[in-house]
Write a structure and sequence with these properties.
- Helices cover 69% and strands 0% of the residues.
- The chain has 314 residues and is an all-alpha fold.
- It is globular, with a radius of gyration of 29 Å.
């Protein structure tokens, strides 16, 4: 009998299908058309609605345009009047600075504190996150209406609980000594949830080995956070700082929804609206205030963009 042939390594090895390296598919004429339309429309809208209006505002700020009379060039007169004559400008600057201090020194640290607590995987932490983040889903205009509902002098919930109704209630929103603080409480309520989510995401990205090393070195939880975790979240810290400043400068909705910025609730954004589309119809003057606000905001926006690009390059 003839012995069967012994299989070789080549015969027993599994056959593999050669992998074909496909070419990159070239864009068709239809693809190019769709991309051109999508990108083109976006660029046109951006140039027209953002950059175009910004340039027009800068030009109008050097005129006395009121929407009716012919445009007359007045140079820096509007800026001079804003800084020397208008008393409301000083009140608006003070309120915007107060807004910044409140959000930066009270609301933001409280949001960080809540993020640290929720990062410890507390019981019902998901429920707490949803409840604390809920105000962020609401616009500031809606929060302004809620503020009226709660703090109104005649029909507010707080005055009803205190038993002070029918004209005897506390005028939380009309008294210039109280209204700014009441509004800041509700604006801070929304800001806390936003900061909490940002820092909660940042805490999840911190290397646990850093925390373990700090604990081994004898650091307590507070020292671990302040000396190890917080510096490790530098990108988040910069973003939060910039967002807080921009939020304080562009604050408008909640104040305008309550009483259109009257009785001590004046803000820079409210001054812009009152002068441009209000009864005064001082478009050139309002544009000058808008340009000043834009220049201050632009500095922080550039800081934010530089930080984002730097992180992307890394």
């Amino acid at each position: 009998m003839v012995a069967p042939p012994v299989p070789t390594v080549e015969a027993t090895a599994p056959r593999t299908t050669p992998v074909r390296r496909g070419r990159r598919r070239r864009l068709t004429a239809r693809d190019i058309l769709v991309l051109s339309v999508v990108v083109g429309v976006t660029v046109v809208l951006d140039l027209a609605l953002i950059w175009g209006t910004s340039v027009v505002s800068v030009l109008l700020s050097f005129t006395n345009y009121d929407g009716i009379s012919p445009i007359k060039w007045v140079g820096i007169k509007n800026y001079h009047d804003i800084l020397t004559i208008n008393p409301e400008f000083g009140t608006a600057v003070r309120n915007n600075l107060l807004w910044l201090v409140f959000l930066g020194l009270i609301a933001t640290p409280f949001g960080i504190f809540l993020a640290v607590l929720l990062d410890r995987q507390l019981r019902f932490s998901r429920f707490y996150q949803s409840a604390l983040y809920l105000p962020v889903a609401l616009s500031l205009a809606v929060i302004g209406f809620l503020t009226q509902l709660i703090l109104s002098q005649d029909q507010g919930v707080v005055n009803a609980i205190l038993g002070r109704t029918h004209g005897n209630g506390i005028d939380f929103l009309g008294d210039s000594r109280l209204n700014i603080w009441m509004v800041l409480l509700f604006a801070g309520w929304r800001h806390v949830g936003y900061i909490m989510i940002l820092y909660l995401a940042g805490l999840k990205s911190v290397d646990p080995a850093l925390k373990e090393a700090a604990v081994i070195d004898g650091a307590n939880p507070v020292q671990t956070f302040l000396r190890v975790v917080f510096p490790a979240m530098r990108p988040i810290n910069v973003i939060v700082l910039v967002i807080t400043v921009i939020e304080s400068l562009r604050a408008f909705d909640i104040v305008y929804a309550i009483n259109t910025g009257r009785n001590g609730l004046q803000l820079l954004s409210v001054l812009v609206v009152d002068n441009i589309i209000g009864e005064a119809s001082r478009i050139g003057y309002g544009s000058a205030i808008a340009v000043m606000l834009m220049l201050v905001t632009l500095g922080f926006v550039i800081t934010y963009l530089v930080n984002i690009l730097r992180e992307d390059s890394r």
